[in-house]
Amino acid sequence: MEPARSTLYRSFLLSAVPMLLLLGAALRLWAWAALGLAFALLLAVSWLSARGRAAGIRARRELTPSAFEEDEVAVEIVLEGDRPSRMLEVVDSFGPAIAHEQWMLDPGGLVPGSRRRLRYVSYCSRQWGVYTVGPLRVVASDPAGLFRSSRTIPEVEDFAVFPRVYDVAGLGRLGARPTFAPQESSAGRAGQNLVYLGVRDYRPGDELRRVHWPASARRGALVVKEHETDLCPYATVFVDLERRHRAGTGKKSSFEYVVRTAASVVWTAVRSGSFVQVAGLGSRPLHVPPGRGEDHLAFALYELIRAQQDGQATLTDVVLHHLPSVPANSTAVLVSATAFLDLPALDDLLRAFRDRGVRPAVVLVNNHSFPAIEGWPPPRAVVVEKCREVTFFLRSRGVPMRVLEESDDLGAVLGREGVGW
Amino acid sequence: MRASAGARPFPSAFLHARLVGLFLLSTGAIYGAYLGWQPAQLARIGPLAWPPLAVGLAVVAGAVLHDRLSSLSDRAGRWKLRAAAGVGYGGVLLLVLLGILVGEPKAVASGLTLLMILQPAFLLLAGLGRGCLGALVNALALTMVGALGGGERASAAVASHAAFLAFFLVADHAARKLAEYPVESLPAPRALLGQAFLPALAAAGALVLLFAWIPPQPYAPLKRTGGAPAMPPEDLARILLELGGILALATLGFYLALRFGSGGSGERGDPVAEKVPARVRSEPSGPSRGPGDGDGDSGWRGRIVRLYVRLLGELARLGVRRRPDQTPLEYARKLAPEGAAGELTGVFMRARYGGEEPGETEYRSAQAAAQAVLDRARKGT
Fold this sequence. Notes:
The complex is a heterodimer of chains A (421) and B (381).
Chain A: H1 8-26, H2 30-50, E1 57-62, E2 66-68, E3 72-81, E4 88-94, E5 101-106, E6 115-123, E7 129-141, E8 148-153, E9 157-162, E10 176-179, E11 186-201, H3 213-219, E12 223-239, E13 248-249, E14 252-253, H4 254-271, E15 275-281, E16 285-291, H5 294-306, H6 315-322, E17 331-336, H7 343-355, E18 359-365, H8 380-396, E19 401-404, H9 410-415
Parallel strand pairs in A: 2-9, 12-15, 12-17, 17-18, 18-19
Antiparallel strand pairs in A: 1-3, 3-6, 4-5, 4-7, 7-8, 7-9, 10-12, 11-12, 13-14, 15-16
Helix pairs in contact in A: 1-2, 4-5
Chain B: H1 12-37, H2 45-70, H3 75-102, H4 105-124, H5 133-146, H6 151-180, H7 189-213, H8 220-225, H9 233-260, H10 299-317, H11 328-332, H12 338-353, H13 360-380
Helix pairs in contact in B: 1-2, 1-4, 1-5, 1-6, 1-9, 2-4, 2-9, 3-4, 4-5, 5-6, 6-7, 10-12, 10-13, 12-13
């Protein structure tokens, strides 16, 4: 069979009409001419029937506004019409997929006052970023499929594709703040948790309901029960958006690794119930205020994919600028786009973190392992030596760290336990 | 819309209606030609019986063989074949036309016999051509030649041809659309096919009225040479009635054979495998060759690509169709088991788009994976 949108039979009729009319007139064969007229009439009726069939059709799209790379996305199109119509084709442009045109057929009749729902599932096959979905196009044809008419419905919306994220191993064991709100994680010191820690002597002010009466009876003095304290994990992610550190292109670039690493850290932290905030400084500041939960994760990832590596400020400057907003006893993850860090400035930062009880962790993306896009990279030996130096510097201060190279598989390296963290 | 394995309904009723339209058009054209030039033949059982039998068999066989014929040769080969067939057929038509122009009845009768024989041949070999274009052109030629005699016989031939063609076009369009899109639920065949009857009846009615007003005259040179045999009106009415009855009975038999015979072999002609190259306009253009085309298909690369295309055809028959806008990876996500589908797709993509020539190992692994996918799809149905 021919494809549904083939115009083969229309071409056949359009060729047959003049031939029949001409031969009929030339040979004075009224039967041939009449057949030609019948074909012409069929074409004319089909053309008139197809015209305006798509008019009066309204359509809107229902979909989630974001997804991760390689995720499947279900999209629903709701059709409404002012007059009955059948066999409508609906075309949607789904930007995140390489095959971005989605064709659907509404086989049943669209009746005025009723709604028809069409659904397709597409696949985010493009890299992370913000894409458009739409516009919608409704294509109608006459019953014989000889002519088609289409109408474009300007239903266009943005769709965010987030980078594929990986669970970062060991992140959950880093800093957290005590809280009165019930949490999943707790610390073995006296607090408000339901987890039983032990008993201690009664002190004035202790609530009577906390008195452990059997133990008090055994000892002959009042003792009270103690519970563990709830911990609220809290992470601050600092992202290096300094323009000087750009290297590589496309999926193999320092920026790509920085964004994917930061997204993975945010993902892991939010999934473990942490409050997360993100900071960076490109030409446009990257700032995600503290928050938790799925919505906050989506917001943080959305801000991350809109960031550009076009800033002037160094990572240490960014951290210093945001230091007051890093809570005590929390985790600070520094995602640097280079291994060539200013170690004295970093040392000052680490000291400041230590004073506030903040647990730092550092991920270094070695930009010199990517093809240089401006200037000459330092010799390989210098880069290796610098990586060793910074690794020694951080580990000697008890800072969990990782160095990411171009050849590294992010999922494997970030998910690996016991390397530096 | 996404298709889940084996859960999609198949538009059998529409495909049957399409084949019935083709049957009516072809048989009607042959009967029209007999009526115009050899009406006496219609008193014998042979000329009455062979058109519905031959056309019915050819329609069904053509539908069954469609996939195999269309995959026999590559795109260039098919074009050469079509060009050669077009030139040969054009020559036949030219000879018939020359015979008509000089008013030689024997030339017309010989040409007509040739056209009658060609009609089942076109239906049978539809897989080599585009759609049913060959059969439509030949049926038109038969009707035109049959109408040369003028009178009521020409009216009947022309009116029935227009009606059957209109019916075929509507049924074919519905079948093409519903076969191409894996819809969740099929529309009621009655409502859609009702749309096919309306234009058919309108076309026939308009032409009958037109011919009642201005009766068609026979072609003058043939009339002079006595090419078109005259027939008493009462005999003509009887023959028309008989032909109408036979055609109705034959059509009913053909439809019942499609409906109840071997699980409805009509739909086996659905050449979903033809739609393997995605018609997605914005997709980055790949190599100019389509799967299964060109000289590069020899060796393991070609075998892997053909294996994949064959599997697509088999899966389409089982209801797991690949949408034209789906990439192989997107399609693979619908298939089960995941491992086998992923492996097969990976091997196919490396063979189809990769720079390295695959080997026998890849072919064997693709074969095993394809078998696993097919087995699962069969279980699913």
